[in-house]
Amino acid sequence: AKKAQTQLDKVKKRLDEAKMKKLEETTEIEEKSKLVEKELENLAEDREEVLSICEEDAEEDRKRKQEFGEVLFQLSLLLQRLKVRYLRCQKAEACKKLAKKLSALAKDVAAAALVLIPAVIAFVGAVGAATALS
User: Fold this and answer.
1) How far apart are CA 109 and CA 72, in angstroms?
2) What 8-state DSSP symbol labels residue 1?
3) What single-letter DSSP state applies at residue 18?
4) What is the mean pLDDT of each run of 10 residues along the chain (134 residues)?
5) 75 near 108, Cβ under 8 Å?
6) Under a CB-based contact definition with an 8 Å cutoff, are residues 39 and 31 in contact?
């Protein structure tokens, strides 16, 4: 009976040790789980912030594109007027002055177009990023 009691005590001791080990592992897993949950929350907040920034950038790009389109429209109207004037005074001295203005205006239009290209590229990139993150 004494030997059986010793065996029983050993088994109980091993069982208690196993329970303690299991409790430690469970606690460690719960702590890691909480850290993972916090990190996921942080990532979700970061994602929302990035999406918000992308949407703001896309809206700014749309506004710039619209403004640029309006400027191009006004420039095209001005160019048409200059062309009409040029045709009216084709051989006159005033025609040479208009030609210089037209040339300068054409350079301005080309410069404005160079400004639009990066804005369009940025707009397309922002829309692509926002779509990819959605």
Assistant:
1) 7
2) -
3) H
4) 88 94 94 95 92 89 87 86 76 72 84 78 75 67
5) yes
6) no
| HEC assignment per residue over 47-114 | HHHHHHHHHHHHHHHHHHHHHHHHHHHHHHHHHHHHHHHHHHCCCCHHHHHHHHHHHHHHHHHHHHHH
Collapsing DSSP to helix, strand or coil, 134 comes out as: coil
Look at the block and give the residue holding tokens 């829309």.
127
Q: What is the pLDDT of residue 107?
A: 86
Separation between Cα atoms, residue 89 and residue 110, nearest integer Å: 26
- Please name which of 21, 122, 115 lies closest in space to residue 62, comparing C-alpha atoms: 122
CA distance readout (Å), 119 to 19, 58, 99, 106: 64, 10, 30, 20
Determine the Cα–Cα distance for residues 78 and 105; give it in Å rounded to an integer.
9
